Amino acid sequence: MKIGQLARRSGLSAHTIRYYERIGLLPRADRDRSGQRDYDASILSWIEFLDRLKTTGMPIRDMLRYAALRERGADTEAERCTLLEQHRERVRAHVAELQACLLVLDTKIAGYAGAEQRTKDHDAARSQRRRDSARTGQAGPR
User: Fold this and answer.
1) Contact predicate 72/41, CB 8 Å
2) Helix/strand/coil (H, E, C) string of 7-38?
3) pTM of the entire structure?
4) Interaxial angle between packed helices 14-23 and 3-10, expressed in degrees from 0 to 180 and rounded to the nearest 10
5) Alpha-carbon distance 117 to 106, whole Å?
6) Could you give the C-alpha distances from 9 to 20, 42, 44, 137, in angstroms and in order?
């Protein structure tokens, strides 16, 4: 597939694909007779994996290290696994930090919802007192 089609299917721009190729995140593409890049569809799963690493905050230097190890073959599986395990621990710590932040947000939002309900309850009680005093002909508190 040509670079434009790969860009559409992967969600990356052609510029990003060329950059990833240049720095070694993507393997060099084969070239057709006219010299244009010609990618195998299997590269899409690798790009998807790279996107997951990027989304989870893996530094590009670690992505490059992983890509280099992958390029060297099966003998590097243990090193790749270690790299991913270390990254997984950083992701887990970040998720825990985000969950703590989410709890603070939820608590604050619930506080606002509680304040809104207290205001509604207060207004309803005030209206009820006015209705009661209007029925009995007494002036309510002001």
Assistant:
1) no
2) HHHHCCCHHHHHHHHHHCCCCCCEECCCCCEE
3) 0.73
4) 100
5) 16
6) 16, 12, 8, 76
For the chain (length 142 residues), average pLDDT per consecutive 10? 95 95 93 91 95 96 97 97 98 97 93 77 76 68 53
| pLDDT value for 134 | 77
CA dihedral (81, 84, 90, 92) positive or negative: negative
Q: How far apart are the first and last CA of the chain?
A: 78
Q: What is the 3-state secondary structure (H, E, C) of 59-103?
A: CHHHHHHHHHHHHHCHHHHHHHHHHHHHHHHHHHHHHHHHHHHHH
pLDDT at 138: 61
Residue 65 tokens, joined: 């290290």
CB 64 within 8 A of CB 27: no
**Cβ-count burial of 65 within 10 angstroms (0-12 exposed, 13-18 middle, 19+ buried)?**
middle
pLDDT at position 13, please?
96
User: In the prediction, which pLDDT does 122 show?
Assistant: 72
